[in-house]
Amino acid sequence: MSMRPDSPILLVLHGSGGTGAGLRDAVGADIEKVADEHGFVVAYVDGYRNNWNECRVGGRWPAKVAGVDDVALMRHVVKSIGTGGPVYAVGFSSGGHMAMRLALEASDLVGGVGVVAANPPVVGNQSCSTDGDPVPIMFVEGREDPINPLSGGEVRVRAGSSQGSRGEVLSAADGARWYARHNGVGTVPERGPERSGGVESTVWDGADPVRLVVLDDTGHTFPTASGGWGPSGAEPYDAPGEIWRFLTTG
Questions:
Q1: Domain definitions of the chain by residue range
Q2: For residues 30 and 224, is the Cβ–Cβ distance under 8 A?
Q3: Is residue 102 within 8 Å of residue 10, measured between CB atoms?
Q4: Rounded Cα gap, residues 205 and 219, in angstroms
Q5: Which of 41, 146, 150, 223 is most buried by a 10 A CB count?
């Protein structure tokens, strides 16, 4: 797509141990199809040594140990693109936690965030400020995720350079309710849970809405219309398109 002076920007944030290029290889075709349809710019951002200094206290990985200011990094990326349009972020796994950090600490930068395969941390595992202005947020979670447990508990990465505990997270439902309270839209959803096939959706409506989507037969992956990456028994789900529509139209 051609970049207009007012083109919106979508920051796409990889998981722990990943890269922007790797996430693009996996799901970029689906994200960029949505970008072409809706006229926004996609920026795949690389974290310091393949990780982010996000909100979780648990775990020791390079970006956190080095005290990297990843919020400042996102501001730099947006400034370097320079469209002047609205900014949104979507993150997978640890990138989802980084997107939550932007929602909590950079609401002046992002107009909303999407979180894939990441539940909010419990209070004792939360290091970010939580008294900032709210922004819309959408969660997409897999019912069979072995790393980010749908029902909450410890997040543990068991392989690769990122292995180790990341502390405990809330359940997907409790995490969405936490953001609903934070966003001032109440704890009782306006719609849902509503089920369509293998997709369960719950929405808390308001000025800064919250949506939780839980997908059956889905593990730790980024669901897309073309099937995400890797083998899966789940029906395809267009997470990039659904997140974009939610963030921009409510």
A1: 9-249
A2: yes
A3: no
A4: 27
A5: 223
